[in-house]
Amino acid sequence: MRIRRKPHAKKMVREHPRVVKEPEQLRGKWHTLFGNDRPLHLELGTGKGQFLSRACQDTPGVNWIGVERIEEVLLLALKKAEETPCVNLRFLWMDVSRLDEVFEEGEVDRIYLHFSDPWPKKRHARRRLTHRHFLDRYKKVLKPKGEILLKTDNSPLFDFSLEELEATGFTIMESTRDLYQSPYVRGNIPTEYEQKFTARGMPIHYLRAKHPRDFSSTR
Ligand SMILES: C[S@@+](CC[C@H](N)C(=O)[O-])C[C@H]1O[C@@H](n2cnc3c(N)ncnc32)[C@H](O)[C@@H]1O
């Protein structure tokens, strides 16, 4: 993603009412922020926020949080969120690697990974958001019945993610290399990147994986 740096972006993000300040203080008590016990869903690497601004309206019974580390990109997501009436949508301006500092063990119901940066070079594999050192963090913060939903256009990243998920004990419940030709497309909300790739006729890879501690899951 090409980003035009904005001198006031940091200040604007810091002061925006939808950006949670000092999120570590809410560790273990996110329900107090939303004022209810509804499921907590995170989109990691939210980008410009297209998915969340629709998801929060389509699914008001969920508390949605977008995590994004680049302030200029987050500003665009915040602008989009301002166009919605959603009271169930917040954002975190931080790196995903800090997830377990901000969420308590078993606090999160679902994690969405949408078109994560593929980092194709082997020496950059640790930066992929499905590298096992990230998955171990997700494993901690997810509930025993929690799950990860992933979409990507990138076959090597998809293969890598399947391998890493299995290596860390997750169970793959659904998987397809062509979402739009599969039954899983029902209720799908396209992200910004997804729209770009589908317009070019590229197939979208999708998977849903269950937490290792969900003893009810079957292959
Ligand atoms: C390729 S874009 C995809 C954006 C959006 N999810 C979509 O599908 O349209 C990936 C986004 O993830 C963010 N990102 C990548 N690594 C991150 C990390 N470690 N922590 C937080 N955000 C991250 C990038 O800044 C970028 O905005």
TrEMBL record:
<protein>
    <recommendedName>
        <fullName>tRNA (guanine-N(7)-)-methyltransferase</fullName>
        <ecNumber>2.1.1.33</ecNumber>
    </recommendedName>
</protein>
<feature type="binding site">
    <location>
        <position position="95"/>
    </location>
    <ligand>
        <name>S-adenosyl-L-methionine</name>
    </ligand>
</feature>
<feature type="binding site">
    <location>
        <position position="153"/>
    </location>
    <ligand>
        <name>substrate</name>
    </ligand>
</feature>
<dbReference type="InterPro" id="IPR003358">
    <property type="entry name" value="tRNA_(Gua-N-7)_MeTrfase_Trmb"/>
</dbReference>
<feature type="binding site">
    <location>
        <position position="121"/>
    </location>
    <ligand>
        <name>substrate</name>
    </ligand>
</feature>
<comment type="pathway">
    <text>tRNA modification; N(7)-methylguanine-tRNA biosynthesis.</text>
</comment>
<keyword id="KW-0808">Transferase</keyword>
<dbReference type="InterPro" id="IPR029063">
    <property type="entry name" value="SAM-dependent_MTases_sf"/>
</dbReference>
<keyword id="KW-0949">S-adenosyl-L-methionine</keyword>
<feature type="binding site">
    <location>
        <begin position="191"/>
        <end position="194"/>
    </location>
    <ligand>
        <name>substrate</name>
    </ligand>
</feature>
<feature type="binding site">
    <location>
        <position position="68"/>
    </location>
    <ligand>
        <name>S-adenosyl-L-methionine</name>
    </ligand>
</feature>
<dbReference type="Pfam" id="PF02390">
    <property type="entry name" value="Methyltransf_4"/>
</dbReference>
<comment type="similarity">
    <text>Belongs to the class I-like SAM-binding methyltransferase superfamily. TrmB family.</text>
</comment>
<keyword id="KW-0489">Methyltransferase</keyword>
<comment type="function">
    <text>Catalyzes the formation of N(7)-methylguanine at position 46 (m7G46) in tRNA.</text>
</comment>
<keyword id="KW-0819">tRNA processing</keyword>
<feature type="binding site">
    <location>
        <position position="43"/>
    </location>
    <ligand>
        <name>S-adenosyl-L-methionine</name>
    </ligand>
</feature>
<dbReference type="InterPro" id="IPR055361">
    <property type="entry name" value="tRNA_methyltr_TrmB_bact"/>
</dbReference>
<feature type="binding site">
    <location>
        <position position="117"/>
    </location>
    <ligand>
        <name>S-adenosyl-L-methionine</name>
    </ligand>
</feature>
